[in-house]
Amino acid sequence: MFLFYFEFRLNAQQSKSDNVKSTIQEFFDAFLKQDTTNLKSMVTDKVILYAIATNKEEYRVLKENDFNKFLIPISNWVHLRLTVR
Questions:
Q1: Is the distance from CB of 80 to CB of 32 less than 8 angstroms?
Q2: Is 84 among the domain residues?
Q3: d(C-alpha 49, C-alpha 57), whole Å
Q4: Is the sign of the CA dihedral 26, 32, 33, 37 positive or negative?
Q5: Does the residue 82 lie in any domain?
Q6: pLDDT (tens place) for every residue of the chain, 85 residues total
Q7: Cα distance between residue 2 and residue 16, in whole Å
Q8: CA–CA dist 34, 27 (Å, integer)
Q9: Phi-psi category of residue 80: left, alpha or beta, with phi > 0 → left and psi -120 to 50 → alpha
Q10: Is 43 within the bounds of a domain?
Q11: Dihedral sign of CA atoms 31, 40, 38, 34 in order
């Protein structure tokens, strides 16, 4: 009984990990394809993006960004080429 439970928990954890990896891969695939409709479908309506920036006083600050404003330049890219090494 213990062995079965342990194996089930291990498989469930692996499955969750695979699901997370798959979701991240799908997000970046949509990002590279400039598919803003698909990107919007992958997030909640209340998604908040954070960025670390440096203010005038040279302090690092956490800035909140609107996801829809993040999507605008993505949809306007003419061509994106990334090289993975």
A1: yes
A2: no
A3: 23
A4: positive
A5: no
A6: 555 555 555 555 668 788 888 989 998 899 888 888 999 998 888 888 888 999 999 999 998 888 888 888 887 775 555 555 5
A7: 21
A8: 10
A9: beta
A10: yes
A11: negative
Is 85 within the bounds of a domain?
no
Angle (CA) 72-75-77 rounded to 5° is 110
CA distance 34 to 74: 6
Question: What does the DSSP assignment read for 8-70?
Answer: HHHHHHHHHHHHHHHHHHHHHHHHHTT-HHHHHHTS-TT-EEEEEEE-TTS-EEEEEEEHHHH
- Please answer whether residues 63 and 48 qualify as being in contact, where contact means their C-beta atoms are separated by less than 8 angstroms: no
The letter for the amino acid at 35 is D
What is the domain range of residue 19?
A: 2-76
Overall domain count for the chain? 1
CB 76 within 8 A of CB 41: no
Both tokens of 73, joined, read: 């330049």
